[in-house]
Design goal:
Shape: globular
Helix content: 25-40%
Number of domains: 1
CATH architecture: 3-Layer(aba) Sandwich
CATH class: Alpha Beta
Oligomer: single chain
Number of helices: 8
Strand order of the largest sheet: 1-3-2-4-5-6-7
CATH topology: Rossmann fold
Order of helices and strands: HEEEHEHEHHHEHEH
């Protein structure tokens, strides 16, 4: 979600991405629990994945074929999707909530965190919170996030059409809502109801209407956040088909880490990082770092 428009899906990668999103929805079964077990069991370190702006972590199913089966994988998911409830007012509240959920799932560290896109910003905030509590973070892996979310992602009421189009695109539907649409929410519901079998058709209206609300709040929380500094090892996955160079992205994080950042470049666009080929490269990088002994501080 960037700029003021949501593009259609003309490229082969975009069609593949839409198909994968639909498959993820079916595979996840529409589960919206705060902690979604993507893979349980195994004796290796668990990986906790912070959600992108859409709030659901089903997208991380793409990593499972490329991570050694010894590693359990959990997706953290936004409040407000499963049932009506207050949403976090800032990143500090969100990080405390996710840190609590991680500690319930895994009472003892070290903790290993991953986040793609805005999930990278959230994962950094959760790492800060865990370290503030005195827990060890064994790895913070950030996939192509930058510390400051651009203010071009407006959450104003007149951009409701953009949020609704973003929902369609994120869940594998064609984004067809125009800026002058008098009822973007109604149009979003109509598109979903007209395409049974794509994943969201069986959702009640209440849950569908929660999606733009949660996304809007996630954008606002991310834009207001000013990250601190973490002490843990940091691994950065940089999408190279990007207006920003890898060097610029890394420089943006320098004030927020205490160690040199390990870097893995991924030959794709930011939005395509969880397609099979890029996910294989990310999975290999994660596997190598999860298996490595912790570096000396």
């Amino acid at each position: 979600m960037d700029g003021s428009t949501v593009s259609a899906l003309p490229a082969a990668e975009e069609f593949a991405w839409a198909r994968q999103r639909r498959a993820d929805i079916r595979a996840a079964g529409g589960v919206l629990d705060l902690v979604l077990p993507l893979r349980e069991g195994g004796s290796g370190p668990a990986l906790f994945c912070a959600p992108p702006l859409v709030g659901a972590s089903w997208c991380y199913l793409a990593l499972l074929p490329h991570l050694v089966a010894d590693h359990p994988v959990y997706g953290l998911q936004s409040r407000g999707l499963r049932r009506p409830e207050p949403l976090p007012v800032d990143m500090a509240e969100l990080a405390r909530d996710f840190a609590d959920q991680i500690r319930i799932t895994q009472p003892h560290g070290p903790y290993h965190l991953f986040g793609w896109s805005n999930g990278g910003n959230t994962a950094h905030a959760v790492a800060e919170e865990l370290e503030r509590r005195g827990h060890e973070v064994g790895l913070l892996a950030i996939a192509d996030a930058i510390p400051d979310l651009p203010n071009t992602l407006s959450v104003a009421d007149d951009n409701l059409w953009l949020l609704c189009d973003f929902v369609l695109r994120e869940f594998g539907y064609q984004p067809v809502i125009e800026p002058d649409d008098p009822d973007p929410v109604g149009r979003m519901l109509a598109v979903i109801r007209a395409r049974p079998g794509l994943g969201l058709h069986e959702w009640p209206d209440r849950q569908l209407l929660a999606l733009p609300r949660v996304i809007r709040n996630n954008v606002a929380v991310a834009q207001r956040h000013r990250p601190g500094r973490v002490r843990c090892p940091v691994l950065f996955f940089a999408a190279t088909d990007s207006p920003r160079s890898t060097e610029v992205k890394l420089a943006a994080w320098q004030d927020h880490v205490s160690r040199p950042i390990d870097v893995v470049t991924v030959d794709c666009k930011h939005e395509h990082m969880l397609l099979p080929a890029p996910a294989a490269r990310i999975g290999a990088g994660l596997t190598a770092h999860l298996a490595a002994p912790p570096p000396r501080p």
